[in-house]
Write a structure and sequence with these properties.
26% strand; alpha+beta; 100 residues; 5 strands
C-alpha cells in the first residue's frame, strides 16, 4: 500500500530530512510520519511551517511503502536520498577490479 512522507533539505547543512510524527525533523526516513493520500495536505502545511521557521528548504511529499520501522521510498531517487550512494567501493585486490 502506498503511503506518503514529507522530505526536505535541512537549511543549516543541506542534509536530507523527514518530518516526524511529533513535528520535528529527522535524517532517518524510518522516523518519518506516514500518511495516506488524503492527508498529504497536512504534511505540506507542516513543510510550509518549516520553511517559514528557516529550518528546511524545498519540502515535498514522497511515495513510500512499508510500515513504521520499515519504510522504503517508491522512487529510486528517493532511495538514494534516504539510504546513500549506489556505488560500492571494491577491494583493490579483487578480481572484479579492471585495473588489476
Amino acid at each position: 500500500m502506498i503511503q506518503h512522507v514529507l522530505t526536505a533539505s535541512q537549511l543549516s547543512d543541506g542534509a536530507v530530512v523527514y518530518l516526524g510524527p511529533g513535528g520535528g525533523w529527522s535524517g532517518d526516513i524510518q522516523s518519518g510520519r506516514l500518511v495516506s493520500a488524503g492527508e498529504t495536505d497536512t504534511l505540506e502545511a507542516a513543510g510550509q511551517l518549516g520553511l517559514a521557521a528557516n529550518i528546511i528548504v524545498a519540502p515535498y511529499v514522497i511515495d513510500v511503502t512499508g510500515a513504521d520501522g520499515d519504510i522504503k521510498p517508491v522512487r529510486w531517487r528517493e532511495c538514494i536520498r534516504a539510504f546513500g550512494p549506489t556505488v560500492v567501493e571494491q577491494d583493490a585486490n579483487s578480481s572484479q577490479n579492471p585495473r588489476t
